[in-house]
Amino acid sequence: MKSNIKKISEITGYSPATISNALNHKRGVNKDTAERILKVAQEIGYVSRVKVNSIKFVIYKRDGLVVADTPFFAALIEGVDQACRDAGYDTVIYTINQGEQEHRLRIQDIIRDNSAGILLLATELTREDMKIFEQACSPLVVMDAWFENMAFDTVLANNEDSVKDAVNFLFDKGHREIGYLSGNVRTRNFIDRGAGYRKAMAEKKVPLNPDYRVRLTPTMDGAYKDMCQYLGAGPKLPSAYIADNDIIALGAMKALKQFGYKIPKDVSIIGFDDLPFSEISSPGLTTIKFFQKEMGRIAVQRLVEKIRTSGVINTKIQISTQFVERESVLDLRKNF
Q: Which domains does the chain show, CATH number per domain?
């Protein structure tokens, strides 16, 4: 390695320290100098363009039920790609499917390659799944998940407080019997959102009714079918539900309407994410808007900072959400 840096120094006339800083995208090297050094490094085979100019975006799918081809993840990818280009990096996307026999070998190849940096979409990951990424040679930032004692920076939604605000909104509308539509795949986001619901209900001193919690598959069709099965037993419904995300909420709404329930007259529903079709659903879905592009942009900014500055401490960045009121919640105060 030292002989290669020395060779680049002889060719370019720059000091080994300047060459090292340029190859690692550190601050203090002007653009023309860095480009000259990188060009020579590529010419002599010291580094490839993919290594020095690219950020790897790793999309990890444990089962693929949550991380799917939806507008949520399309917007996130767009935000990541734009922010990488703005910072002067290419984006190389890798999709890891845990069900594939050699998925761990693929991860090893990704994390051992000394690229500029790695963004990890960890929506479906567990704490155990995260351990292998601790071996990464390059700086790494996690998106859409967080675990205690995690050795990485992470950027995600303020899940718990957002759902607490939704419970408070329903209380202000006169609702006291509030249920929860939870995904039967327990991602960290879903766990934190459920915790926000429970804490808010406890703060309101309202006991939780276990019959008001319904576990649904986190796909549109899966949530619809599971909700149909639940409704087929003729359960007593709460006056309102909060769902882990919009997809679950919309699937449940379809089932409720099929069973003759009117929304919001018979039951109110709040989602999470504010996907494009939530606005055009019937009725329009009241939901919690999460800024996916912003998460991607902030994650890239944080990664670039870690690439260019040594000794940066790990941070947990929670992005605020915005409550979007539409037509799926009934104001019970106006009906007395």
A: 2-39 (no CATH), 50-156+292-319 (3.40.50.2300), 159-290+323-335 (3.40.50.2300)
